[in-house]
Sequence to fold (53 residues):
Amino acid sequence: MDVARFIDEIIAWFIGTKHQRDIKKLQPVIAAINSGEPEMPSLRSEDLKTRYA
Fold:
């Protein structure tokens, strides 16, 4: 095994990969979007623009 790759794998094990860190950072945004989903069908187009713009 290449030494550089081995070191990269060790670092990724401790702090996660770039993709894992990005997903962890976006989880609160996704949760906020999903929490508003049940009321979406009842909102008019104008309400959506003012609420989510």
About this structure: The chain has a mean pLDDT of 86. Residues 9 and 17 are 9 Å apart (CA to CA).
